[in-house]
Amino acid sequence: MDLSLIFNKEAILVDFEANSKNECLQSLAELLYQMGIVSSDKEFLQSVLAREEQSTTGVGQQIAIPHGKSQAVKKTSCIIVKVKDAIDWDSLDKKPVKLIFLLAIEEKDQNDTHLKILSTLAGQLIDEAFVSKLLDSTTKEEIYDALILNEQAEIEEQFI
Amino acid sequence: MRRKILAVTACATGVAHTFMAAQALKKAAKQMGHIMKVETQGATGIENKITDREVAVADVIIFAVDTKVREPERFKGKKCIEVPVAAPIKNAQKIIEEAISQI
Which of A55, A93, A111 lies nearest to residue B45, judging by beta carbons? Predict the structure, then answer.
C-alpha cells in the first residue's frame, strides 16, 4: 500500500499545542479548512464531535484516531499530529494521547484508494513496534519515513 | 487445542475501528496458536469475505460490531459471541478466550 499517495509532510504537525481534546479538534478542523480539505470547518467539526460522542477514538498506546464523515469533506484525507503535551482523550487504556490521526472522510461510501489506505493505516496501529517508532519520532521527516517505510507483516494463516 | 475462529468486524464509519479490531484479533489469535480469519464490513464494503465452507469448519464466530452484521444468515446455527468493536482493540486475547469458552 503506497501511503505516499495520501500523506505529505505538510499534513504532519509536531509540537502541536492544545489544552483539551475539544480545543485540539477545533484547531485541527480550522487547519483542514485552511488547507482546502474541508469546505466548512464547523460542519466537519460537528461530524467529528458526533463520532466522539458515540465512543472514544482513543484506541490506546497514546494514539487517537478521531474521524468525521461529512459532506464538508472535499477529498478523503488524513492529518497526523504529534502534540507537545499529552492530552486526555478518555482512551480505552485511560492513557493520555500524544499522537493524533485525524481522518476526514467523504460522505459517499466508495471503494476508494484513499479510504483503503486509511483503513490499512488504522490496522497498522495495532503493531506496537510501529507505534513506538512513531511516538519516538520528533520531526515531520521521521514520522513521514516511519509511515512510508512500514510494511505490514501478514499475520493471517490459511483457514482451511 | 488449536481452534478455528472466524470474526466479523464493523463500526459506524467503517474506516478506523473495523480494521484495528481485525488486526488485533488476527495478531492475538496467532500468539495464542489459533487459526483466525476476519471479515471486515467497512466503508469499502465486505472484504476478506467468509465462505460457507469456512463457516462449516469454524469452531466459533466473534462479531465485534457496533452496527448490524451484513448478510448474517450465513452464520445461522453457529456458536458465537457479540462484543463492541472496541473490545478486541482493548484486549483481543480476552475476547478470544471468551469465544473459546462457548465451544
Answer: A111
Nearest-by-CA chain B residue for A57: B17
Tell me: the pLDDT tens digits for B75-98? Answer: 999 999 999 999 999 999 999 999
Give catalytic residue positions of B: 11
Eight-state DSSP code of residue B13: S
**How many helices and strands (H and E) does chain A possess?**
5, 6
Using a CB-CB cut-off of 8 Å, the residues of chain B touching A109 are 14, 43-45
Is B8:B29 a contact under the CB 8 Å cutoff? no
What value of ipTM does the predicted structure carry? Answer: 0.90
Query: C-alpha grid cell for residue A136?
Result: 519516538
Q: What is the mean pLDDT of residues A58-85?
A: 94
Q: Identify all chain A residues contacting B12, using CB atoms and an 8 Å cutoff.
A: 51, 54
Q: Is the pLDDT of residue A1 over 60?
A: no
**Shortest CA distance from B9: residue in chain A:** A123
Phi, psi of A40 (to 5 degrees): -150, 120
Burial zone of A32 (CB within 10 Å; 0-12 exposed, 13-18 middle, 19+ buried) = buried
pTM of the model: 0.93
Distance between CA atoms of residues B47 and B55, nearest Å: 16
CB contact at 8 A, B17 and B85: yes
Report chain A's C-alpha Rg in angstroms: 15
Is A57's CB within 8 Å of B54's CB? no
pLDDT in tens, B12-41: 999 999 999 999 999 999 999 999 999 999
By the 10 Å C-beta count (0-12 exposed, 13-18 middle, 19+ buried), A45 is classed as: buried
